[in-house]
Amino acid sequence: MMSIRTPWSSHYTVTTNRLEKEGSNMSSSGVKVSAVTPPVYLGEGPHWCVREQALYYVDIPNQDVHRYHPQTEKHSKMHIDGGFVTLVVPHKDLSDVLIVSVGRSLMSATWPQPKNNISVNAKNLVTIASVDDKYPDNRFNDGKCDVLGRLWAGTMNSKTDVGQNLLDGSHYCLRNDGSINKILDQVAISNGLEWSADNKTFYFIDSDAYRVDAYTCDFATHALSDRRTIIDYKLVGLKPAFPDGMTIDEDGKLWVASYGAGKIHCINPVTGKIERWVDIPCSNVTSVCWGGPQFDHMYVTCTSKGLSEEQLAKQPQAGSVFRITGLGCHGRPSNECKVAIPKK
């Protein structure tokens, strides 16, 4: 069932499917998936800002940071010159400042007031840290903050794609004092990341490996060890879809955007089993986060990249942000960034 509200905003009644055991029938319960923003080319990096009750996300190649305020349904964007913009996290102590990636650098940017202006250019860009000097084609990709406000973010070769196994990327932790430390190397496409509630387990996706992995995490030193695989998309028959962005719910279940499948998969990290999934009316879903006043809304970014004209005709909302409601579970707040910003 579908009713069109605007050319880009509609809602669907779809189902989530719960796998009770291998070979069993699936029971289903209704949820609602709504397109809430106009399409962009490559939406990524959703972050729910609690104090603003607004969603931030990026359009990577167009170098735009977008902001969507559900209560007013207002949508605005801020352009940043200098390179691909792949992540955005509000600064914890500076209300107008966002931490963003621009190419191989992590920077602070000020969003000019008022934030509901339809389109503005970023002000006061300040470089905090730059990485991967030996790999000029690299860029940052996914990233988010831990509960201490440290920004964990990874890199990839900007010219690579899934399946090329080009291990030029690394994963970094930007510490509160503004220094940056490499915590993983030989990464192809650094993507989704999350932590367990006790911060002893770090979940990580290298999309090129088609896996969701877990590491033992020494949270104080951000050292990672004892890698093990939670789920391998090749082994469970999900390939050619691959895991992209990821979030976690209050029960410790991982919700993974499966690029190419048009699904958000809920994975039990203890058993490695897919417990249920939500169908999204766009095949190339990129990332996911929790939002809303009670953190029971899920926001999904996606892209029209790689879709043929025939596919685009069938997926007119590709590139929109979708909101999922009715899941019957809650997530955790997105952490804001608490890092020192160098003076100009």
From TrEMBL:
Residues 42-302 form the SMP-30/Gluconolactonase/LRE-like region domain. Substrate binds at R139, N141. Binds 1 divalent metal cation per subunit. The active site is at D244. The keyword Iron-sulfur does not apply. Its cofactor is Mn(2+); Zn(2+); Ca(2+); Mg(2+). Keywords: Calcium, Cytoplasm, Hydrolase, Metal-binding, Zinc. One of its GO terms (molecular function) is enzyme regulator activity. InterPro entries: 6-blade_b-propeller_TolB-like, Regucalcin, SGL, SMP-30. GO terms for cellular component: cytoplasm. A divalent metal cation binds at E44, N191, D244. It is found in: Cytoplasm. Signal peptide: none annotated. It catalyses: D-glucono-1,5-lactone + H2O = D-gluconate + H(+). One of its GO terms (biological process) is L-ascorbic acid biosynthetic process. Its EC number is 3.1.1.17. SUPFAM superfamilies: Calcium-dependent phosphotriesterase. PANTHER family: REGUCALCIN. Belongs to the SMP-30/CGR1 family. This is Regucalcin. It comes from Meganyctiphanes norvegica.
